[in-house]
């Protein structure tokens, strides 16, 4: 038990992001430097977020971490890299000052607790929100004010994009030390208020090939990936930025789908091949294309990361009709009432014309487990209320954490 009050306790939250120009492949594994730039949309924390508390105290004898209430190995290399990096930045800042206003915090050990407000079992990417939140919270507890891309990136590449709200690019950079491989906001969350995001949770199973291992194999064996990084992504980054700036939904949607498809093509081009999409994912792809064809306009887009869950982009005037199409093609299992979570979507009828155009027999119930309806959201936040802390004054998880 601690005999003194902690030196500092900070609690922050951070969002999940979904890439519309995908990051796949590292040129430096140690520094987590990518072979191409990427661009993502930050999702709203009302639906998906990580909350992290960091406490430092002279009484702590070792660094410790609890994830979703369970103590985990603090020696894990990525976690260690984040801790080392934040302490290096804190030391640098202290040395730059004349005085020494943080005399003891640097020598202190830290206790960290982190929870997600969404089920980890859903197979939704939680590492980006998790490491962004860790970097952001540690920075506040150790008094670091510099760019945190490097700290978050060391945990998980895509995490640096969760440091900002709205639309965010991760510039690959050119330097070998990675100092110019940083995340930057392209447009704030208020920029495109009509944009909506639906997460179609397809499978709760743990994926066969993790991102780190998968992208290493792709870098080593896929000629298509090299071509993509060198000759496709630079043009797409500029085009995607334009679509976002001009709120050009059809342009944004088509490029999002093409880039997701090319990412999965590089997975198939990897040897031995990697496959993240399953039969339900493919049915969702067909559903989106038939829905768009019926309207004669690109009204909906899909994107898939390293797993079978689909993330759908659409505008608020189309959400209700698309949800009706999903409900028809993928009838809910026993959770009819809880099929749609998050933002309210008013029930809408499915016209006979659209139903015919979808040309799909409904699957057996439960192919899509549930939908989370959300929107674009802000970046990390500090929670001022001490009752938000997940760790008590003794530095141990509060019972509810
Ligand atoms: C398909 O950021 O999870 O989601 O840097 O090895 O931790 P590591 O990989 P990670 O990869 C994300 C890959 C992706 C595309 C993306 O988010 O850009």
From TrEMBL:
It comes from the Eukaryota. One of its GO terms (cellular component) is cytosol. The keyword Signal does not apply. Keywords: ATP-binding, Cholesterol biosynthesis, Cholesterol metabolism, Lipid biosynthesis, Lipid metabolism, Lyase, Nucleotide-binding, Steroid biosynthesis, Steroid metabolism, Sterol biosynthesis, Sterol metabolism. The keyword Transmembrane helix does not apply. Its EC number is 4.1.1.33. GO terms for molecular function: ATP binding; diphosphomevalonate decarboxylase activity; Hsp70 protein binding; protein homodimerization activity. It catalyses: (R)-5-diphosphomevalonate + ATP = isopentenyl diphosphate + ADP + phosphate + CO2. GO terms for biological process: cholesterol biosynthetic process; isopentenyl diphosphate biosynthetic process, mevalonate pathway; positive regulation of cell population proliferation. Residues 14-183 form the Diphosphomevalonate decarboxylase-like N-terminal domain. InterPro entries: GHMP_kinase_C_sf, Mev_decarb, Mev_diP_decarb, MVD-like_N, Mvd1_C, Ribosomal_Su5_D2-typ_SF, Ribsml_uS5_D2-typ_fold_subgr. Residues 197-383 form the Mvd1 C-terminal domain. Pathway: Steroid biosynthesis; cholesterol biosynthesis. Belongs to the diphosphomevalonate decarboxylase family. Catalyzes the ATP dependent decarboxylation of (R)-5-diphosphomevalonate to form isopentenyl diphosphate (IPP). Functions in the mevalonate (MVA) pathway leading to isopentenyl diphosphate (IPP), a key precursor for the biosynthesis of isoprenoids and sterol synthesis. This is Diphosphomevalonate decarboxylase. It comes from Chlorocebus sabaeus. The gene is MVD.
